[in-house]
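Entry 14. Structure prediction run on the chain below.
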Amino acid sequence: MKTRNATGESRAPRATNPAGRMDTREKLVRTAEGLMLRDGYSATRVDDVIRKAGLSKGSFYHFFDSKEALGLAALEHYYADRVGRLAAGTHATETDPLRRAQGFLKHASRVAADLWRTGCLLASLAADAAGSNRAISKALKKRTSDLRALLVDLLSPFATPEITASDLADRFLVCIEGSIVLARIYEDPTYLRRGLEQFRSCLKNTEVRRA
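Output returned:
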């Protein structure tokens, strides 16, 4: 008997080898994530994922009952990995809010190319699937809101009466997504670091004017 979890994935009864099951599921999710980043959600077929992962169709349907469920799982994996690494720099242990914010931006510049050289799955799904798939649209809104909340908290020391922390979070996201597009178009991941450095420069200019 199968049950369904919060992301809509089909769940079969527990097998005698839980570790092996998890390895298979993670392989499917990671493969789907890579293909969806490269080709987009619409162009990625379940058969493509199964073939590239080197697994059987039965293995796929043991964990997922649809492409949508796999897409949601790929989104969750992508978000946990990228945002986890973005938030995990040495700045995280800094107690002074301003130094933590400055440290976060330096860390983001250092890891940007590694995090987003293959693109952004949130943006890809937003362009390719959000308009036609309610479940994916809902998941994207939740995860984007979660990311904005994290950025609002981190960037709040830079806020002014004219530019709120929410404004800064939005500008950070616009900077990242624009840099990802340029990096993909010109096949040059340095756009990612340069985009964040420009964001930092804008903040410094704001601090100078405020002083």
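The first strand starts at residue 3 and ends at 4.
Filed with the rest of this week's runs.
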